[in-house]
Each structure stands twice: as C-alpha cells, then as structure tokens.
Amino acid sequence: MSLLSRLSSATAMLLVVGTTAYVADLPSKKAAPQTIPTLVRKMSNWTDVYGGLHTGLGFGNFTKEGKDVYGNPTGGTLGVTGGVNYQAQNNWVYGLEADLSLGNIKGSSTGSSEARYLNTFRGRVGYAMNETMPYFTAGYTGATTHDSNGGSTVDNYHNGYALGGGVETVITGPWTAKAEALYIHIEEKDIPSGGGSSGADWGLVRVGLNYKF
To answer: Residues 39-44: contacts with CB within 8 Å, 24+ apart?
Structure first.
C-alpha cells in the first residue's frame, strides 16, 4: 500500500474517532427523570396540658326508693375541663382529666331531686391515630343533689364512679374537639321526711372544646 493510501486511511480513521468523541460530549436532549414527591403524613403529638369547656345531656333513673319518689331524671350540664396527656412511643396516650359542671338533671314525681353540681376525676387511655384519638375513661365522680319530699328539702353530696369512652380530634393548631359518653353511678343518700334512700344511674352524653397550652 502506498504512503498516500496509508495517509488517507489514517485521516479517515481520525475523523471517525473525533466525530464520535464530539458527539459523545454534546449535552443530552433526554429529559432528566422527574422526582415523584413523597406525601408526608402529619403526625400529632398528644402530650400536653389542656383546658376547655363542655356541655351535655344527662338521663337515667333513680335507685332504691328514689325511683318511686322522684321518677326518671333528665337534664343538661355545662362546665369546665382540665387535664394532661402523655403520648408514649407506641402511640398509646395516657392522661388524667378533671371537670366541674353545673346541671339540672332532674326528676319529679311525689317529690323531686335535681343534680345541680357534678364533678369527675378520671384516667384516660387513648390511641393516637394522627389527628384523631379514641379513648376509654374511668374514675371518680361526685354529685350534689337538691332533694324535696313531703315538704322537706335537703342537699346531699353523693360519691360515685364514671365509666365511658369517646373520641377527640384536632380542629386547628392547639384546638381540639371531643365527644364522649359516660355511665355514672352515685351512692344512695336519705330522702327527706324519712322516705328511704336514693341514688342514681345516669347516662351522660357530652361534647367539648379544648385548648392545648
């Protein structure tokens, strides 16, 4: 092969190699893969101290002689609430809650009995489901009744207990709302004019608005 032929072959090879390298160095027109955004679920921490207001409806029946003297009690409540929660790492929430209510849960037949004040001090166990927490609750309750029978009246304070459950949810920021149902039993106390004794079994359904401090 002549020198001219060799030079021509070498030149052609260099042109091919150079063109290939140049094309490889050009910026790619292929679009970069897009990153799919990951949805982040908002998690609420229920560890807090809180206070608020509640209102509800009470209904039920009197026990012992009260069921004949006072009939069936019904009426409303309105009060204040305070409490504290602690959320564990497994999302269980443990708390204490106290409340004080004004009420007119009243029954009347031959006499009358009205629960004018109601207070509870309860433990709560709930499970945090992001911004919603269902819970169980149980503890002490006390009620002051104004009883009338046979022309005599007396104010009695009754000890008792409360059992129930509910659900609480975050509305916005530090505000939460709750709905709960309680079964309340209070002890028997003497009816005026020697009419025996009376306690009560109530159902109490109420709603509340709390503020987390």
So the answer is: 41/130, 42/130, 42/131, 43/130, 44/128, 44/130, 44/131, 44/170
| Per-residue model confidence as pLDDT tens digits over 179-198 | 999 999 999 999 998 779 99
CB burial string 100-137: b at 16+ within 10 A, e below:
ebebebbbeeebbbbbbbbebebebebebeebebebeb
Tens-place pLDDT, residues 62-121: 999 999 999 999 999 999 999 999 999 999 999 999 999 999 999 999 999 999 999 999
Q: Domain count of the chain?
A: 1
Residue 73 lies in a domain: yes
How far is it, in rounded angstroms, from Cα 204 to Cα 76?
Answer: 9
CATH number at residue 91: 2.40.160.20
pLDDT recorded at residue 26: 52
Residue 105 resides in a domain: yes
pLDDT of res. 31: 54
Q: Answer whether residue 198 is part of any domain.
A: yes
Q: Could you give the CA distance from residue 210 to residue 170 in angstroms, rounded to a whole number?
A: 9
Residue 11 lies in a domain: no
Q: For residues 205 and 55, what is the distance between their CA atoms, to the nearest angstrom?
A: 9
Helices (H), the chain: 3-25, 66-69
What is the domain extent for residue 165? 48-212
